[in-house]
Design a protein that fits this description.
The chain is 20% helix and 47% strand. By secondary structure, it is α+β, with helices and mostly antiparallel strands. It folds into two domains: 51 residues, Roll (2,3-Dihydroxybiphenyl 1,2-Dioxygenase, domain 1), CATH 3.10.180; 45 residues, Roll (2,3-Dihydroxybiphenyl 1,2-Dioxygenase, domain 1), CATH 3.10.180.10. It has an eight-stranded mixed sheet with strand order 2-3-4-1-5-8-7-6, with helices on one face. A hairpin with a 4-residue loop joins strand 3 and strand 4. The protein is globular.
Length: 111
Amino acid sequence: MKTDAAVIGHFDISGPDLASLTKFYEALFGWDIASRGPGYSQISTPSLAGGIVEAEQPSLTIGVVVTDLVESLLRAESEGGSVAMPATDNGWVKKGQIRDPAGNLLTLIQK
C-alpha cells in the first residue's frame, strides 16, 4: 500500500433508537459511547472513532480522513461519484459526503 493512501478515520451507525443502539454496542463490543447532543453519540474504540446517529433508516457510513476536503469532493465527482453533502464545518469537524458510482455513501473528514 502507498504510504500516502487514505485511511478510514470514522464510522457512523444509524437507526431510529439511539438508546438501544448505544446499549447494544456498549454491551457487544465494550465501546465507550458518549452523548454529543440530540441525535448523536460518539463512539471510542481502541482503533477507530465512530458515532451512533439517530435516523429513520438503519445504515453504516465509513468516514475517510483526507488532507484536502474540497479537492477530494471534486475528485470524487471527476471519478464518477457524486457529492451528497458539500464541505461543512459543524464547529468540531470539517466533513462532506460522497456517493460512489454504486450509490454507497462515504463521509470525508478533513485531516
